DNA sequence: AACATTTGACCCTC
DNA sequence: GAGGGTCAAATGTT
């Protein structure tokens, strides 16, 4: 009985997360569609908003994977045992080990969802039970970081359109900053050992974006989640960089801009 | 030129 | 042997 309650609770949690992910997808669509509108493009808001939504999507995806990995841990262990006796170390073209029959996680959506991760398509197949092609994707960082995450997407219904995405494996790649070409966190070798340098790409922020005054406000709003004082340096000659003289975990809380999206982004930007 | 997608072949599991 | 998952060469796109 108690077990049933836990299962339904987990299902409800999963449904809520999926609902959140779908809403974030819709928001992302609005942001992406707005790129071509000249006025919005010139503002500081859209790059931040788009990044924020992508990060939200990634969180939803990872949470769903974690939830479902717990569920399928046992079955995948069993299937691994079954495979122990099969041949190994083959490198011929097309050689592969068939994935476990139980997917890590699958979800249906009326739109082709983005999930915040970068995928590379590596194949597509017409399956016997469907009139539509199934597309196979692997993580874009599979080669660089040996990330094992894969997914396949299949249309399962014509009208209204419905797509089923099945994920296997979870992301082990450190792609957090790769998808944020305009912001970069790195060591600041010229300063003290534990300092960090937060860089803003000039292409995004040179024109009417973050002004000196705003940067100073931003720096004063940076606080430590460990309640420790954080020392910040803003170089006079370069308004696109902030030096963070601390090795502790930081939270941004920048609220002077009129943009809610900017707030969300800064609120999420934790390292 | 570099990167992404398409497509047919290959090979495993059932 | 059928069906499905993956590879890699060919092709397309930026």
From TrEMBL:
* One Gene Ontology cellular component annotation held by this UniProt entry: nucleus
GO MF terms held by the record: DNA-binding transcription factor activity; sequence-specific DNA binding
Which InterPro entries does this chain map to?
Answer: WRKY_dom, WRKY_dom_sf, WRKY_plant
Question: PROSITE patterns per the record?
Answer: WRKY
| The name this protein goes by in its record | WRKY DNA-binding transcription factor 70-like isoform X2
User: Which species is this record about?
Assistant: Arachis duranensis (Wild peanut)
Region described as Disordered? 71-103
Keywords, ordered alphabetically: DNA-binding, Nucleus, Transcription, Transcription regulation
Bias category Low complexity: which stretches? Answer: 71-91
Q: Does the keyword Transcription apply?
A: yes
Report the locations given in the UniProt record: Nucleus
Gene encoding this chain? Answer: LOC110273813
Origin superkingdom: Eukaryota
Q: Which residues form the WRKY domain?
A: 108-176
């Amino acid at each position: 009985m108690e077990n049933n309650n836990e299962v339904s609770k987990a299902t409800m949690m999963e449904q809520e997360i999926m609902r959140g992910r779908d809403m974030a997808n819709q928001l992302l669509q609005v942001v992406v569609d707005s790129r071509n509108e000249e006025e919005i493009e010139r503002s500081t808001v859209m790059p931040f908003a788009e990044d924020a939504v992508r990060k939200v999507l990634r969180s939803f995806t990872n949470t769903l994977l974690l939830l479902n990995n717990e569920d399928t841990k046992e079955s995948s262990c069993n299937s691994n045992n079954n495979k122990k006796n099969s041949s190994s170390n083959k490198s011929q073209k097309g050689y592969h080990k068939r994935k476990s029959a139980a997917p890590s996680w699958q979800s249906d959506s009326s739109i082709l969802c983005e999930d915040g991760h970068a995928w590379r398509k590596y194949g597509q197949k017409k399956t016997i039970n469907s009139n539509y092609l199934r597309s196979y994707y692997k993580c874009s960082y599979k080669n660089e970081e040996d990330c094992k995450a894969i997914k396949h997407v299949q249309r399962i219904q014509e009208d209204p359109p419905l797509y089923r995405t099945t994920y296997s494996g979870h992301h082990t790649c450190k792609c957090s900053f790769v998808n944020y070409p305009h912001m970069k966190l790195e060591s600041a070798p010229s300063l003290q050992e534990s300092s960090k340098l937060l860089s803003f790409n000039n292409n995004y922020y040179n024109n009417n974006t973050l002004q000196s005054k705003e940067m100073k406000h931003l720096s004063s709003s940076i606080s430590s989640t460990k309640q420790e004082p954080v020392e910040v340096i803003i170089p006079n000659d370069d308004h696109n960089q902030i030096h963070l003289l601390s090795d502790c975990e930081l939270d941004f809380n920048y609220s002077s801009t009129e943009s809610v999206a900017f707030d969300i982004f800064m609120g999420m930007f934790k390292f």
